[in-house]
Amino acid sequence: MRLSKAFIPTQKETPADATIPSHQLMLRAGLMRQLTAGIYAYLPLVYRAMLKAMNILREEMNAIDGQEFFLPALNPEALWIQTGRRHIPNFILSIKERDLVLAPTHEEVIAWIASMHIQSYKDLPQIWYQIQTKFRNEPRPRSGVLRGRQFIMKDSYSLDRSWEDLDKSYESHAEAYRKIFTRCGLKFFEVKASSGAMGGTGSQEFMVESEFGEDTVVLCQKCDYAANLEIASSKAMPVGRSNDGKTVEEIHTPNVKTIDELASFLKADHVRLAKSLVYKHNGKPLLILMVGNDQLNEAKLTASLGGGTIEPFEAGQLQTLTGADGGSIGPIGLKSFRIIADKRLEGANDLISGANRNDYHLRNIDMQRDVKVDGYFDLRTVEDGEDCTACGSKLKVSHGIELGHIFKLGTKYAEALNVTFLDENGEKKPVIMGSYGIGVERIIACHIEQSRDEHGIIWNKALAPYAVHVIAISMNNKDIVLTSNQLYQKLTEAGIETLFDDRPNVTPGFKFKDADLLGMPLQVIVGEKGLKNHQIEIKKRKTGERIMVGIDEAPAKIKQLLAE
RNA sequence: CGGAACGUGGCUCAGCCCGGUAGAGCACUUGCUUGGGGUGCAAGGGGUCGCGGGUUCAAAUCCCGCCGUUCCGACCA
Are strands A66-68 and A126-135 parallel, antiparallel or unpaired? Predict the structure, then answer.
């Protein structure tokens, strides 16, 4: 492509609305323009990179016997009502005029097709995938393409006859995903993840570490333990027993509201303070006991309770039910509350908690003797520097961008949409499903996050829109024009994707800056300096290394450098 | 959904507090100039100051409402 004819609107200044580097560079390098919040127009240059990423996705999905579909983005609303997902908050965008919804993912359509045509165990297993635009009702799009309302996703779905076979489909996806991200040149890691509202029995995320990531992850510094903070656990020490045998007694704690105030007022260790958190679970009162300065992890709580709605109490209601205000609530003598506790408190005694009477607390509480606990669960949020459960080394809390997510769905959608097959014994069984997704724009944005410098993007060879960027220093010099044109032609004929900066009356400095901003792996500079010695110059974008080669050897040398 | 900020030529922003002829740089057009790291000079074109209402002799500027965008938080299959 000749730059004199190309539409690549580069910008010198950083657009005000972009705050993270990949977003800034994608705008400055003329890759995309924002239409409205969370919705972008992809311009020709980035679309080439996206097509390359999509090709890699296709090849690796085909390699695990995936079959490519193209499913409708517009779905009947009724289909989503059937699976109960129509009214998940902030999920679906809809077309009111026709009772249609814009599909945010495609489990429903896949299950609909499967319900018609999967009849026998002989029809299984299947892996179906597509690369398609998705729509989500994001309340707050942000970080450029990292969280948008419209984006392209490779989504695949496995259909299996048994849980063992689902494990195989899931594993082959995990392996394919590793190959995909490796081929895209991304430094990634995998974490155990929460299945969330997707439903299902297991899930794993593929992440890129980034301070701009929205996910918080826990990584072991030594072993390969890695988990999303939502489910991460650490070697948290049990509180244990001390001062056995003392009876519960009330202590006056005037104006003490918070755990920190309580600790300093009583000169007590935080570990001896059992903090009471009150919620309504499915409308019923729930009291959660946690060690003083541990943080409740709401994702773990939801999982421990087996789902349902969790909401805080309304003002005043608490007083009626407990006889006290927040800050003085405790597990003893509390009626009509279900009480659960964090595992660290299991079997502990010598604890201090609220007395259900304002300005009073109780001491010498023994969990076994005094509290009717309906289950101990791991409910705490892992903190940076805690010990790894697997190897005992220090854990690091970090941030990540989610590139891909794989789920074992099980039978949720099969049951809702009646996807069944007959097994060898003629018995009717639900199909076991898995679902797997990769965000195409995220591949691009993550690559740019990981591969850039103060001058611009540094594309790797796998994703680069063009492999080579030829720069004619001046179009007023006949030798340069002749040589650069011939070189452009030879490279193009050799099948090397080449961008040729043949713009007249653009100064060399301007062309260099643009070339660095656009970031193709190799820059080939044709100028008077080199031509004097019958040479041209090759610059590697990544390292800045410059190589002078004879004009005639240039195509071969470029080919060789691209093959490295 | 809670909190905050912003909205002025294509882009980055000034002007607003203290009302009185809409500005700069970049980009664009034309001419000359320059030609290995965003050349220099000159002349030009381009803006209902987000929208609506109000106050006023007079509103980009003050007041009210709405819309949009961004950031923090909540949420995130």
Answer: parallel
